[in-house]
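Hi, here's the filled form for the chain we discussed.

Project: internal
Contact: R.S.
Residues: 141
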Amino acid sequence: MTDQHRIQGAGDQIQLGGHGLWYELCPTRLAQEAAVMSFRFPSFTLLKEKDGTVGWERLIHSPSGARYRVYVRYPSDFPHQRPQVFIVEPKIRGPHMNSDASLDLESPYEGTLEPSQVTAAYSLIRTMRWISCFEAKQRVI
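And the returned structure, exactly as it came back:
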C-alpha cells in the first residue's frame, strides 16, 4: 500500500486525530481491535493512509515457508463492513479474490458472521487458511 505512515505496533498506545472517521467516532472499537491484534499478532503494524483509512500490515510466512506481505484494511464504514485483506507481495491472482484484489474469505460451508463481529485478527486467521488452500491448489496444477 502506498502513502502510509506508521501509527503503532500492535502493543503501542493509539493516538489518532481528525473528524468523522470510524475510529474517531468509536475509539473504543479501535482500542479493542488493537488489544486483540497485540495478543494474537503482536508483530503487525497499524498504518494510516493519506485518506484516513487504517489497517494492519506485516510480512508473514506460510506453513510451506513462502513469504507474503499482508495488509488488512478497515473500510471507511467499519464495523458495518468487514475488514478487507490484500496480499501486497507477491502479486497473485487466483480464485476466491474480489475484483479489487482483496481476498474472499467467506466460506459457503461455515456460518457467516455479521460484519460487526469480524475483527482484523479473525480476518488474518481466515487469511492463513486462504493462503494454505491457494498453495495447495498451486501444487496440484
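Let me know if anything looks off before we file it.
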